[in-house]
Specification:
By secondary structure, the chain is mainly α. It is built from 14 helices and no strands.
């Protein structure tokens, strides 16, 4: 083979290798997509069964194998739940508690995270270390002493008593601190100070708008933390009207039986507010979580 033939064969071999690499990569990507879709179906299947059970009659609920789509759908479970239990009152209690807890966590995390990130000192380092240390302490460890404090304040069976345990989130402070360090340069703050802006104006007009994604992610985490909490409302609320949805749903289960139809109907209704909340903030949630791991 002449030198000219070798030069012509080299690009051809390169193109063949590139096509082979592209084919292998496409096959790998397809395999990953198939695995992810299968895993997603497995994860969503219990939710689909939950909604389907809400529309089934007692006889169909006991049928085997279980049906994915109700053969004779009925609304009797929803009618029974809404007429026999104060479900809407429980949802209202959980919404008020979750919204107030989320607002409190957003406010405390934004202020504390900004101060820890942009006003460093030895004292701030110690405070931040103590805050992180509290994250590894289970809530059940100090739940009973906190209960006696709520009892002493006369806040049992109220939203304010529920809020006492969910006003601050140590992870939220860490999340906002990391985002402030990575996304807000010191030069921007110094420029605002040179222009005569005060610290509160800088925080409200400069810092908060730049933290919108992180605060959205934190808002989703804080909302679902308080929306799904069970142990704390169980000991703080003792009257039927003051229950949250988690405590109310537990009433459908006794020591020996579970009213599966009504429990499924009530759970399906309870899913609506959380789904709506997540749909509105899903983009901020993804952006906020993704930006936390970025480095300069």
């Amino acid at each position: 083979m002449t030198t000219m033939d070798k030069d012509a064969a080299a690009p051809l071999a390169t193109r063949e290798a590139a096509r082979a690499h592209k084919a292998r990569r496409s096959a790998t990507d397809l395999l990953i997509d198939v695995v992810l879709v299968a895993f997603s179906c497995v994860m969503v299947l219990p939710l689909i069964l939950l909604v389907a059970n809400a529309f089934k009659s007692p006889a169909e609920l006991l049928a085997w194998p279980p049906t994915l789509i109700p053969i004779q759908p009925t609304l009797e479970n929803f009618r029974a739940v809404l007429s026999d239990t104060p479900l809407m009152r429980w949802i209202f209690n959980s919404l008020v508690f979750s919204v107030l807890s989320t607002l409190s966590i957003l406010a405390t995390s934004a202020i504390t995270g900004y101060i820890l990130a942009k006003f460093p000192s030895k004292i701030m380092t110690v405070i931040f270390a103590v805050m992180l240390a509290t994250a590894i302490v289970p809530f059940e460890v100090y739940m009973i002493p906190l209960y006696f404090q709520v009892q002493g304040l006369g806040l049992l069976n109220s939203v304010w008593g529920l809020l006492v345990g969910y006003l601050v989130m140590s992870f939220g402070i860490f999340l906002i601190r990391q985002n402030v360090i990575q996304t807000i340069p010191d030069e921007l703050l110094e420029a605002a100070r040179i222009d005569g802006a005060g610290e509160w104006w800088i925080f409200l007009k400069v810092v908060l708008p730049l933290l919108r994604s992180a605060l959205g992610a934190l808002g989703v985490l804080a909302f679902f933390q308080s929306w799904t909490v069970f142990a704390w409302p169980m000991i703080v609320t003792t009257t039927r009207e003051s229950y949250t949805v988690e405590i109310g749903l537990a009433l459908f289960q006794t020591g020996y039986t579970v009213d599966l139809g009504r429990l499924s109907a009530a759970s399906a209704v309870v899913l609506i507010p959380s789904i709506i909340f997540f749909v509105f903030l899903r983009r901020n949630f993804v952006k906020g979580i993704a930006s936390t791991g970025l480095k300069d």
